[in-house]
Structure formats: structure tokens, C-alpha cells
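Work Package 4 report. The design task specified in the project plan requires that, given a folded chain encoded as C-alpha cells, an amino acid be chosen for each position. We show below one input record used in the internal validation round.
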């Protein structure tokens, strides 16, 4: 087994690291505090090719592969988790349009997502009553002359208020997952109503809204993929999205570990640095070990996807382990900081707030375990 990165992967990783540390990190606390959507930072990511890492070059992407994308996500998340989740969804939307869209759809949307012309892309699958169970969705698409009319509501939509294009799932057939189709809806389309920004525990610089479709008429060419074939697109997109969220969680966990190490070396108690106490050393050792394992799982899933091999189980394994390991690492970081970890004077509390949702979105930990078990027990 070869664990060495190739030159292209190292270049993407270093490019993301340099931009994250020099440009994003100095603004991360303010982005969180002010709940500021990072338009300028995202434009910079687009200029560096980091908003379309696995999109073909002919469509404006970097065409650097899934492993490079995972590495870049970790570096950006290590600086600012809010920016990273926006980057993740935009990459996912661009990639899924490039893969499943018509040439006209791909040529219209992918370059604008890639270069930051559009601030973000959005992925509208979840509903107030259909999260882990997409087969329960109630949003409908009704065929009319020249197009479709969408009616319904989507919930927890990342970047929904700012996305240039939104991938929307709606029911076009019977019950369950077999009658679901996919549509591309552009920003400010008539009948598309954006709800209030959710007041979240973490990721406060990431925009999260409800989207309502009220007699939202879209043309025939807004249909994305095959009629009644939307569920397959969603599941394939989520497999890749889980690699991105695993990578994001690793970045947040590493940031928390970095903060804990610096603090432990500096903080004095009983006449010596707390880093000299075994209790602290064991927490740092556990976080280092678990995050290293998470990185290997994420890169394995990324490698499998990049080589067009089955990766659904591996993506779920990476996502559940990385998210839960990162939550533990962030919790230990707060503990190592003691009372200071509970204040905004240090970044430890922000990392803990930001990382918690990684066990929920792109499929909860419980759903990941279900996916893994189903494949093992076949």
C-alpha cells in the first residue's frame, strides 16, 4: 500500500493550507461571532480552484480528484468550519451536476460554481418531516405545458439564501423513493421563498434556511437526471458528501488538538506545565490516535471513489468515525483548557460547537451505522 501523496495532491493540500492559515484563520472568530457569510473568502477559494476540486477542467474545475478534495477540506476546516461546510456543499453540487446533468446544464452551472461567480451551491433534499427518511418527502413537482410546478418546503438548507443554483428533490410519482425526481432551480426564481436564517449552536457563519416552493414554475430543462430517478442521484451524492464531512470533522478536531497542545505546554499548575501530567498526555494521545485513524478512513473512502470503486460503506465508516472522534477531541480540548475552555477567549469552545453537527448532517451517526450494517449483512 502506498500512502504517499502525488505532486498534484500535495499542491492542492498546500494551496488550501496556505490560504486557510493566512486568510481564513484570522477571520474565523469574527465570522462566528458576527454570523457573517464569508463572501470574499469563498471568492478566493474559487480563484484557487477549491470550490470545484473534483470537477472536470473543461467545466472550470480543478480535476484534482477526491483525495485532493478531502485534503483541502481538512485544511479549510482546520481554520474555519463555517467556511468549510459552504465549500463542501458547493463542491458536491458542482460535482453532481457535472456527473448527472445534461451538457447544457453542466456548462451553465459548473463554471459559475467553480470560480465563485455564484457564492455557493445548495442541496435541497431534507424537509421538516423527511430528514433521515427521504422517501417521506412531500414536496411535489407537477407537469404543466413547458415545464414543472414545484410546491413544498425544504429544511436545513446550507447556503440556501445565497446559492446561485439549488438542486431540489420533489415527488413526481408514487410513494416511497421510486417516484422522486431532481430539478435545478436558480436563485431568486419566482415562487422560491427563502425563510429566516436558523440560529444555530455552531457553524454560525454558514447560512442555513428553510426554502418554500409556492407554485414555483421551472422550465422542462430544469429536470435534472431521469424522471423518477432522483433518489439514486441523492444517494450517490451523499456518499461523496460524507467523505467531505468526514474531512471537515477531522479538520475541526485537529484544530482543537492544536489548541490543546499549545495550552497544555503553556499552562502551569503545581509548579509545572500541565502537559507533564499523565492525565493530559493521555487525552492528547487519544485525540491524536483517533484523528489519525479518521484520516486514514477518509482517505481510503476518497481513494475508492476516485478510482470508481464501491465506496458507500467506506464513506459511512469514515463519516461516523471521524465525526465522533472529532467531537471527542474537541471535548477533550475544552477539558484541557479548564474554565478558559468555556469562554470565548479561546477557540476551544467554538470548535466544540462547530463539530457537533457533523454527527447529524449528511446522514446521522445512526444512519451511517445502518448503511454499514446492511452492507456487511448482505
Amino acid at each position: 500500500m502506498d500512502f504517499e501523496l502525488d505532486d498534484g495532491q500535495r499542491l492542492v493540500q498546500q494551496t488550501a493550507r496556505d490560504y486557510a492559515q493566512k486568510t481564513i484563520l484570522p477571520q474565523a472568530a469574527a465570522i462566528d461571532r458576527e454570523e457573517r457569510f464569508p463572501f470574499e473568502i469563498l471568492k478566493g477559494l474559487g480563484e484557487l480552484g477549491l470550490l470545484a476540486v473534483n470537477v472536470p477542467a473543461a467545466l472550470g474545475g480543478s480535476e484534482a480528484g477526491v483525495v485532493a478534495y478531502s485534503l483541502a477540506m481538512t485544511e479549510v476546516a482546520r481554520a474555519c468550519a463555517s467556511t468549510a461546510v459552504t465549500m463542501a456543499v458547493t463542491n458536491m453540487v458542482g460535482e453532481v451536476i457535472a456527473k448527472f446533468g445534461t451538457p447544457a446544464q453542466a456548462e451553465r452551472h459548473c463554471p459559475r460554481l467553480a470560480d465563485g461567480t455564484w457564492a455557493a451551491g445548495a442541496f435541497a433534499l431534507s424537509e421538516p418531516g423527511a430528514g433521515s427518511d427521504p422517501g417521506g418527502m412531500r414536496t411535489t413537482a407537477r407537469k404543466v405545458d413547458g415545464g414543472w410546478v414545484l410546491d413544498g418546503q425544504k429544511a436545513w438548507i446550507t447556503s440556501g439564501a445565497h446559492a446561485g443554483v439549488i438542486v431540489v428533490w420533489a415527488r413526481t410519482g408514487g410513494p416511497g423513493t421510486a417516484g422522486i425526481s431532481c430539478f435545478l432551480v436558480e436563485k431568486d426564481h419566482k415562487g422560491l421563498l427563502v425563510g429566516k436564517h436558523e440560529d444555530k449552536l455552531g457553524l454560525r457563519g454558514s447560512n442555513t434556511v428553510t426554502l418554500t416552493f409556492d407554485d414555483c414554475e421551472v422550465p422542462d430543462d430544469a429536470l435534472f437526471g431521469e424522471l423518477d430517478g432522483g433518489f439514486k442521484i441523492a444517494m450517490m451524492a451523499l456518499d461523496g458528501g460524507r467523505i467531505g464531512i468526514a474531512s471537515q470533522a477531522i479538520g475541526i478536531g485537529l484544530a482543537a488538538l492544536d489548541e490543546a497542545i499549545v495550552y497544555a505546554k503553556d499552562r502551569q499548575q503545581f509548579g509545572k506545565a500541565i502537559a507533564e501530567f499523565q492525565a493530559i498526555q493521555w487525552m492528547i494521545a487519544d485525540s491524536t490516535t483517533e484523528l489519525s485513524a479518521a484520516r486514514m478512513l477518509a482517505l481510503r473512502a476518497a481513494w475508492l471513489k476516485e478510482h470508481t470503486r464501491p465506496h458507500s460503506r467506506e464513506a459511512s465508516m469514515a463519516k461516523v468515525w471521524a465525526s465522533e472522534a472529532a467531537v471527542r477531541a474537541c471535548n477533550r480540548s475544552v477539558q484541557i483548557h479548564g474554565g478558559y475552555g468555556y469562554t470565548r477567549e479561546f477557540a476551544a469552545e467554538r470548535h466544540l460547537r462547530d463539530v457537533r453537527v457533523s454527527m447529524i448532517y449528511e446522514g446521522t451517526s445512526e444512519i451511517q451505522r445502518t448503511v454499514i450494517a446492511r452492507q456487511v449483512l448482505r
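The first helix runs from residue 7 to 34. Validation will be extended to a larger panel in the next phase.
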